[in-house]
Amino acid sequence: MTERDYAIRSFKEITLNAARHTEERMDLYYEEIKALMNNYQDLILENQMVLDELEQECQEKINENMAYALQYMDAYDYRINLGKLKKEVNNIILIYGLCDMVNRAMTLVKYFTPNFGTEYYDVLYGCFCRHRKMTDMEIMLELGLSRASFYRKKKAALRYLGYYFFEIVVPQSANKRYKPSFPETEE
């Protein structure tokens, strides 16, 4: 499902929730989503760093990439700790689920935020979704925004993101109206 398809599919829920879309509710979610997105950014950076380290280790030890090493382990190493491997896979699926939910909320910001949806999306992506941490100044320069405009848009974008995340995306996931694009595993 593309971003646009998801946005169209969510339009009805957004219009039904429009009565609850108040400044007070957006302020309520602002601090929560700000903390969540800072942790989300750290999670992305940490996982990218771990993947880069594993890739480098595979190159150094066997002079092959990580995909080859995993394929080799799957075919020839019967000593793999399946319990630990299942736990790690479940952690990866949880991280993927959070990434999917944040991406869906950002899609709603992009398509349903009045006037500045695309700009808010760009600010959120620059601040929280990169695989390398950028300073606010670098993001401002990249987007061509003044300091005051950048911080005003960042706050507004986080307020909308919080609203869409907690009012639309989380209930969709709880009610399973939206099927995630990853396979479910058994515990």
UniProtKB/TrEMBL annotation:
Keyword list, A-Z: Coiled coil
Coiled coil feature spans: 19-71
Domain of life: Bacteria
Annotated protein name in UniProt: Phage transcriptional regulator, ArpU family
Organism, scientific name: Blautia faecis
